[in-house]
Amino acid sequence: MDLDVERLLAGHGTSLRWMTDIANDDDCFGYVQSLHDADTAAQQLGIELREAGAGTASVALTVAQQHLGSLGQLHGGVLFTLADVAMSYAGNSRGGTAMAIRAAIDYIDAAGTGDVLVATAIEHSLRGKAGIYDVAIRTEADDRLIATFRGNTLRLR
Question: Could you tell me the residue ranges of all domains in the chain?
Answer without folding.
Answer: 3-155
